[in-house]
Design goal:
The protein is an alpha/beta fold. It has two domains: 184 residues, 3-Layer(aba) Sandwich (Rossmann fold), CATH 3.40.50; 110 residues, Rossmann fold (3-Layer(aba) Sandwich). The protein is built from nine helices and 16 strands. An eight-stranded mixed β-sheet has the order 4-1-5-6-7-8-11-12, with helices on both faces. A four-stranded parallel β-sheet has the order 13-14-15-16, sandwiched between helices. α2 packs across α3. The two termini are 36 Å apart.
Length: 319
């Protein structure tokens, strides 16, 4: 079997950090440094490329789209790409890559929760596992994947669940789609073809608003002011305070797409509760129900759909 060609694209984050004299984590490591931290993998040729030393909390959707374009370039010469990224917004970048990367090939996103010189640093193991997944033919046709803590997750369902734990990433609704042991990758579910859009730009103004008990309508009015769309993380199956719903319905009537998700981060939205502010009310007023998507990936999907000139209703219908 021919050797698999994998590109490592380093963008910064904790995986690129070392500890300075104050005990603070500082981004210092490039792609070649990261690659040097892992042993060579059998039947894989890895080439290291630097994108930057970015703080992921400051990565914007346009920057994510630029990363997607770089991944497209690398996939023209490689079988797969592993992108290292800070964990704060890793799930959102992975979602955008899944929607916006046009080239065939495997895309894997990974990172770390501990700096490279901390005791028990997880970066080298996560990178080794991610490279193993990127080189596995069974990873093809699944869209962007996130590999952390020896688990493989689909972009769009994975979320960061803890601010500091090594096992922070999970897919609460579906669980992982694969597991890694050494270099051995085992997929536990069949491939789900990714939803891909011809994304031209990713700069649509899309606020994300979480429903809270008794929240005043003024915060909703403020969020809608000048917005190209809105994502709401509602209670339970997609419920909001009753006074919100007429404003949301009016926004839809004005041509502003409103996507309803659940702030529980697991399970579907819609289909059960009648009454003002309920999920049936949301559907009847034309809100888009985002299925099992997390609020964060739903926001990225709406940005990508608008950036591709698509009807958001049709885009989410294809989920």
């Amino acid at each position: 079997m021919s050797r698999r060609r994998i590109a490592l694209l380093a963008t910064g984050g904790t995986i690129a950090c070392t500890t300075d004299e104050h005990g603070w984590s500082v981004k210092t490591l490039g792609a070649a440094d990261l690659l040097a931290s892992v042993p060579a993998l059998s039947a894989i040729d890895v080439t290291a490329y630097d994108y930057g030393l970015l703080a992921s909390w400051d990565v914007t959707p346009p920057a994510m789209l630029d990363m997607a374009r770089r991944v497209d370039e690398l996939l023209s010469e490689h079988d797969g790409v592993v992108l290292t990224h800070g964990t704060d917004t890793l799930e959102e970048t992975a979602a955008l890559l899944s929607f916006a990367v046009r080239a065939a090939g495997t895309v894997v996103v990974t990172g770390a929760m501990r700096a490279s010189d901390e005791p028990g640093a997880d970066g080298p193991r996560n990178l080794f596992a991610a490279l193993s997944v990127a080189a596995d033919p069974e990873a093809a046709g699944r869209g962007a994947l996130v590999v952390m803590d020896d688990e493989v997750h689909r972009a769009g369902t994975v979320t960061k669940r803890h601010s500091s734990a090594l096992s922070t990433f999970g897919s609460p609704t579906t669980g992982p789609v694969g597991l890694v042991h050494g270099e051995q990758v085992t997929f536990v579910s069949p491939p789900t073809p990714p939803t891909r859009y011809d994304v031209e730009h990713a700069d649509a103004d899309i606020p994300l608003l979480f429903a809270t008990t008794g929240a005043p309508t003024r915060i909703l009015e403020s969020a809608l002011d000048g917005a190209a769309g809105l994502v709401v993380a509602g209670f339970g199956l997609g419920h909001v305070p009753a006074p919100w719903m007429p404003l949301l319905g009016a926004a839809v009537h004005r041509g502003i797409p409103v996507v309803m998700t659940s702030r529980t981060h697991a399970g579907p939205v819609g289909g059960q509760y009648a009454g003002a502010g309920g999920d049936i009310d949301a559907r009847e007023r034309g809100l888009i129900l985002a299925g099992h998507r997390t609020p964060y990936s739903a926001r990225i999907q709406l940005i990508c759909a608008i950036g591709a000139g698509m009807d958001p209703v049709a885009a989410f219908a294809g989920r």
